[in-house]
Amino acid sequence: MVSRVIPVDPFDLVIFGGTGDLARRKILPGLFRRFVAGQMPPEAQVVGAARSEMDDAGYRDFVREAIVEFAGPLSDDGTQVDGFLERVSYVAIDAKGEAGWDALRTKMRGDLVHAFYFSVAPALFGDIAERLHLHGLAGDESRIVVEKPFGKDLDSAKALNATLAEHFHEHQIYRIDHYLGKETVQNLMAVRFGNVLFEPLWNAQYVDHIQITVAETVGVGGRGSYYDQSGAMRDMVQNHLMQLLCLIAMEPPAKFEPDAVRDEKLKVIRALEPVEPHHIVRGQYDKTVDSVGYREDVENPRSFTESFLALKLHISNWRWAGTPFYLRTGKKLRARTSEIVVVFKDAPHSIFGADAGRHRNVLAIRLQPNEGMTLDVTIKEPGPGGMRLVDVPLDMTFADALGPEAEQATEAYERLIMDVIRGNQTLFMRGDEVEAAWAWTDPIIAGWTARSDVPKPYEQGGTGPEDSLMLMHRDGRRWRELKT
Ligand code: NAP
């Protein structure tokens, strides 16, 4: 099946931090893939901006290397790479100084869409927003893309929102959470609101509980000092897991339009109950004979920051009253897996007797690896052995079901950047959503500080601290297996 490419309007896209890691690994290769897909109109241009002194040719070499390293087999086509590079140029700019801004302004053309991607440290967001304004680049045709982290608590998020609001309207601000750009995440909405099968069952009456897992096999890597200030709560739960929770739990919006969707997500966050301390498990990966532990990784022997977090949450509304949501995320775990699992309740009465065993429908929505969904349904075990039941998965791996193009189309960053150019904010977080998420997060973190909470050590390559298993076992439930 060939995916349909919807062309975007001509644009000027400026990447502040155009020489950084995110630009190199995600943004530039993603733009190249959109170019190859024919989505980038001939007039479009991409301008890298950072402090390093470099001419256009030097930056094109940098972009070429990024494409070769991260754009996959598409980069084998030299003609396509050259074609893309013709649209790429560079301006040396210090976000905190005045040099370079006039050169940037002269590059921006007429009435085209002007997009400014802030792929720099958050401390520079305000400087860039202010200078865009001072140099006449914050007009109505302009939009800005802001990377996470969006603040570190409610106060800082409010301050950041206020700074950006001085120069840009909310409809010009795109707070990116790349999880929302994943094919499966959007499919979650398609499955819920495009079928009659699921929505009638999508409530406390039929759903026993929901699990959201984002597990990583890697440790903190080179981000130790940032991560130690942040931890799993700020780095993953407040943004990515919260967004997934919103999409799984929200009411159907009246339309698939930015504010209609975001209004419903906001209601979910506002309906979250405060979390009981005994419904929270924090962990830190321990050292092994061959591998350093979390504290060595972040070079802080007295660190109390969590690299693992599991939580049991409740949403106070009619749909979900009494249904627990279990969230977990962590580093150095057994598998790299992101999935949402909806576990339905048992059938109200079994006509098959005790021998048939206990069976449940389970809908698992995989974000990675192998984006797709499985629905476990109960059938009769084949053979003459009487009415024995077995759960079998109906498996819809997107690459199998829709062909390899489906996989080609799944890179979150490129989809989201094209949405910025189209002016579609549906998959971006609104300022009030981010603030509401922090308003829920802050008291939890404050509680840890007040109690001098110490994360539990956990074994690398496992499933996190024992207490995380107990969080489920106490309720007679268990986490879905973390498969390698
Ligand atoms: P990075 O590798 O440290 O790159 C930072 C970029 O900012 C470089 O291009 C740097 O170039 C430029 N820069 C630094 N100071 C500047 C200044 N005063 N004026 C203009 N440019 C300046 O960081 P990154 O990993 O790409 O991350 C960028 C942003 O994305 C951060 O907010 C980060 O939290 C977020 N993010 C990153 C990832 C990721 O996978 N990397 C994932 C999610 C979110 P010069 O030194 O030449 O100026």
Beta-strand content bin: 15-25%
Report the CATH architecture of the largest domain: 2-Layer Sandwich
Succession of helices and strands: EHEHHEHEHEHEHEHHEHEEEEEEHHHHEH
Number of strands: 15
Bound molecules: NADP nicotinamide-adenine-dinucleotide phosphate
Indicate the mean pLDDT.
93
SSE class: alpha/beta
> Share of helix among residues?
25-40%
- The Rg value, from CA coordinates, equals 24 Å
Oligomer: single chain
Q: Give the uncertain stretches in residue-range form.
A: none
Can you tell me the CATH class of the largest domain? Alpha Beta
How does this model look, in words?
The longest helix is centred in the middle third of the chain and has 26 residues. This protein has 484 residues and is an alpha/beta fold. The two termini are 29 Å apart. It folds into 2 domains: 137 residues, Rossmann fold, CATH 3.40.50.720; 275 residues, Dihydrodipicolinate Reductase, domain 2. The protein has 15 helices and 15 strands. The strands form 2 sheets. Strands 14-13-12-11-7-10-9-8-15 form a 9-stranded mixed β-sheet, sandwiched between helices. Bound molecules: NADP nicotinamide-adenine-dinucleotide phosphate (NAP). The site of NADP nicotinamide-adenine-dinucleotide phosphate (NAP) has 23 residues, from helix 1.
Would you kindly provide a brief summary of this structure?
The chain has helices at residues 21-36, 56-70, 78-85, 101-107, 125-134, 154-167, 183-194, 224-249, 258-270, 294-297, 398-402, 404-408, 412-422, 431-451, 466-473, and strands spanning 11-16, 45-50, 88-92, 113-118, 142-146, 173-175, 207-215, 280-285, 308-313, 325-330, 337-344, 362-368, 372-380, 389-397, 456-458.
